[in-house]
Write a structure and sequence with these properties.
The chain has 364 residues and is α/β, with parallel strands linked by helices. The protein contains 16 helices and eleven strands. The strands form three sheets. The chain has a six-stranded parallel β-sheet with strand order 3-2-1-4-5-6. The chain has a three-stranded antiparallel β-sheet with strand order 7-8-9, covered by helices on one side.
């Protein structure tokens, strides 16, 4: 077990993806994460997405409590007296109605860090609205900027708001609050909203707005396809190459490696000014397969990469060399990206069965 958060006890009432992913990072750093689940079925992820549930709940304990029952609410409050963190993802006001809100818990445990991870936060006109990753990305301007020029908005294959705007932002806030609680003996309430966290990631879009006075158009920003030297190109076999030669020095290396120095005379510019270079690169990449290009440019240091599928990503030699790809129950699994030395963090125990640790924590 990694010792960084050894001795930190987390009560995690969250479900599905954002909250459990947040507490997974805490478990990977050595915290004891006790997953509080309803007795009848537990976390919805157990039945809806069992493979995902296994990946993001590894190393945790499972305790079953129905907080609507007085005796179970009292049992949870007893656990909270000795906890360092409570993490929940209910809509605002739910925990207060159950008699387990922050003010109630901190009265008996002043050092408690209480994190509420919600879609829209504890205040504002949207606070009580339902939402999913797509909705938060829509409000945060992410969907408007994602997709090809002239095309429809495109959904990402990973949940930007749930994971980056929500889970990881909440984890950072929790660690800061834990540090403060250890120093002062006083915990705090962490109000973590997925919309807030996603909007905060929009620094490049807002920088462009500040510079030009308007929002960029989808697929027409320098980092979303406007520049021919920073774009995606289809290959002879239907595969794709990501050419990220943003700086002139990298594009020069690319032209040298491919034996096409005349390309340096074409403008690396957005719009019609760069159309000649884009046409030349489109034709060039169509002459070879994706893997041929990737092999030819391995080590060329010009920011060129093959566009891999998730299955291919699991076999990538860099990720393999870094120890990022593991195995669980005979199937591939992702290991922790957190590094505190030369070696990856140790693998966690499998995700617990529902109520597996009731005896240990509840004595029943």
């Amino acid at each position: 077990m990694n010792p960084l958060l050894q001795g930190v006890r987390v009560l995690d009432l969250s479900r599905l993806l954002p909250g459990p992913f947040c507490s997974l990072y805490l478990a990977q750093m050595g915290a004891t994460v006790i997953k509080i689940e309803e007795p009848n079925g537990g976390d919805y992820g157990r039945s809806l997405m069992p493979e995902l549930h296994e990946l993001i709940n590894a190393g945790k304990h499972s305790v079953t409590l129905d907080l609507r029952r007085a005796e179970d609410g009292a049992a949870f409050r007893r656990l909270a007296r000795e906890a360092d963190v409570v993490l929940e993802s209910f809509r605002p006001g739910v925990m207060e109605r159950l008699g387990c809100g922050y003010q109630t818990l901190r009265a008996e445990n002043p050092r408690l860090v209480y994190a509420a991870l919600t879609g829209y936060g504890q205040s504002g006109p949207y606070r009580d609205w339902a939402g999913h990753d797509m909705n938060y990305n829509a409000f945060a301007g992410v969907l408007d900027q994602t997709g090809p020029a002239g095309g429809a908005p495109v959904l990402s294959n990973f949940q930007i708001a749930d994971l980056a705007g929500g889970a990881l932002t909440c984890a950072v806030a929790l660690l800061g609050a834990l540090y403060g609680a250890r120093a002062s003996g006083q915990g705090c309430f962490v109000d973590s909203a997925m919309l807030d966290g996603t909007a905060a990631l929009q620094v490049l879009s807002v920088a462009g707005l500040r510079a030009t006075g308007r929002s960029g158009r989808r697929g027409e920003d320098v980092l979303t396809g406007a520049l021919p030297n920073y774009s995606l190109y289809e290959c002879a076999d239907g595969g794709w190459i990501a050419l990220g030669a943003l700086e002139p020095k990298f594009f020069q290396k690319f032209c040298t490696a491919v034996g096409r120095p005349e390309l340096l005379r074409l403008p690396m510019a957005p719009g019609p000014a760069g159309a000649g270079l884009r046409e030349a690169l489109t034709a060039l990449f169509k002459t070879r397969t994706r893997d041929d290009w990737a092999q030819a440019f391995a080590g060329a240091d010009c920011c060129l990469a093959p566009v891999l599928s998730p299955a291919e990503m699991l076999e990538d030699p860099q990720l393999r060399a870094r120890g990022m790809i593991g195995e669980r129950h005979g199937k591939p699994a992702l290991r922790s990206p957190l590094r505190f030395g030369p070696d990856p963090l140790p693998d966690l125990a499998p995700a617990p069965a529902l109520g597996q640790h009731n005896e240990q924590w509840l004595g029943r």
